[in-house]
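Dear support,

Our group has been running a series of protein-ligand predictions, and this particular one with iron/sulfur cluster is the one our PI (initials K.S.) wants archived with full inputs and outputs. We had some confusion internally about which version of the output was final, so please treat the block below as the authoritative record. The input we submitted was:
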Amino acid sequence: MNEYIISKQVGKTLFEKIWNKHVVKTINGGPSVLYIDKHFIHEVTSPQAFNGLKKRGLGVLRPQQVIATADHNVPTINQHLPIKEELSRKQVEQLISNCANFGIELYGLGHPYQGIVHVIGPELGITQPGTTIVCGDSHTSTHGAFGAIAFGIGTSEVEMVLATQCLLQTRPKLMRINIEGNLNKGVVSKDIVLYIISKISASGATGYFVEYAGSAIRALSMEARMTICNMSIEMGARGGFIAPDETTFNYLKGRKFAPQSHEWDKQVAAWKELYTDQDAVFDKELFIDASEIEPMITYGTNPGMGIPVSGHIPSLNEVVDEDKSSFEKSLYYMGLQPGISLIGKKVDYVFIGSCTNSRIEDLRMVAAFVKGRKKSGDVEVWVVPGSKQVEQQAIEEGIDKIFSDAGFQLRQPGCSACLGMNEDKIPAGKYCISTSNRNFEGRQGPQARTLLASPLTAAVAAITGQVADVRDYL
Amino acid sequence: MMKKNINTIISTAVPLTVENVDTDQIIPARFLKGTTREGFGKNLFRDWRYKDDDDQKPRADFVLNNPAFSGRILVAAKNFGCGSSREHAAWALKDYGFDVVVSSFFADIFSNNALNNFLLPVLVSDSFLKLIFELIQNNPSEKLEVNLEKQIIRISSTGGEESFEINTYKKACLINGYDDIDYLLSLRNEIEEFEKARV
Ligand code: SF4
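Confirmed final output from the archive:
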């Protein structure tokens, strides 16, 4: 990997083109007032924002630009029954009443469009190139896969956008990560992003917005691009995005809220103008050769602590002095030792889900691998689709049958064990291979131990009951 | 709401020497079920403060449980507040009683959330951070003075100081107790003009 730092400014980056079109005004010596096209909300980070509006006697300025769903807190079995846990139920009920009172469309439990907020936006065609998108959730960067400026905000900011459809933002620095070449067998987009983060660290892109580019990125499907953009925040970036192209247009065409008929051609013509000029300059650029990338796995408690599955955890003398104490603390939490290989490590749970890897393509990838195979006896395997539509599609394609034959549980849509806010928690001390995006201490439940990996690496762990190199099974 | 303006804060400080403290540590997801901004302080750093959810006994080895340390300033190691966008992290710190967090590196969204809740993130150099960690650990009654107007953080006993950055707009908001919403609401006409002009 090579790194260049450049500062001179010439042509325009895609980021600047979109940003400039959305600036209402700029405060002298301060941030810009940025206009927001689409605002997604969910039950956990919105109640205080609505309370704020009520206190100030305000309404929602553009309710038709706000889309709500219930995802973080919802159970993934028996969704037709009332939510058992009282506080979760109250949050979901508040979302329902807030949406009704303020005139916001809600895809709540039981609705055919319900699902994880970052899965439903794209699949409904709400997420479109050249737009600004926010949500009170850091993985809003997912929508950047369509060439949108999409980023997570806090609840005070949710309130601002509800009230004014605008936000005060300082323009971030820009970084481009170029990935050229072909991916090796068994390597998928999750491995690309885990590889990048392992190279630049969990704070390596703090202060930046990242554009992903290069032939390896252009060759990816929309689902795969979303996986990469999703984890931009895991390298510290405010967001990440990819210039739209034919793959983007083909994905969007015919979707529920995508432009229709003659409006479609007009929009596609406009979207074709969304690219970074050849002579545009970034504050920082990275170049990665796709063939360097192997199937990846994390061993520690931040997403930057990743290694090729065939490699080994760094030994103590490979860690720089200033990182030693956090490295040791992390391994202690994980119950792992420096210098060891993870191959053969027994796992207790496999979680295939979250806004990183719960789309139909992820489920198809897992199904193709496990078809005719059975899960190892003592692993618990949860597959949680990202949305009702994904769930429905999986049933139509017979993927549900493949999973039940293999002994996998196909559950109902939601965030589930990604953050363990509902009952789907990994017990203390247990190991879980997870396709989600965070391996923080306690993320999947108090004292739970998370190994982040691709859906393929998760699938092979489900079959063998241990960490394995998927390339040995293809 | 836990808002108030900020200017000068003189206080003892609590040293949290762990790096990469993420928002799941500041406030674990299972405690995000409240629908108001209050009350999150009792679950601040929950999993480090208590052994498990049923056990209310504080863990003696965690700094918040050490009676020697207290105050309105949290001194934290680098990359503080990474992870999710949950503003609950800022609410929990503020609700617990902190008005300032000092570190050598903050995650972006955390800084924004903190500022929107009148919790001042003070960014200092690695060497200054190391120095204050040492001083506080040797003498927990050591005081820090944070002067927002002058953008200076100072060690009371030694007079050692460092200046810190904050954008002028945000500084004015904090000192005067304004928030972004008040400002954005005043732009209503400009926003509508902008909308008309772009279709
Ligand atoms: S799936 Fe996980 S990361 Fe994605 S929105 Fe839900 S909780 Fe956040």
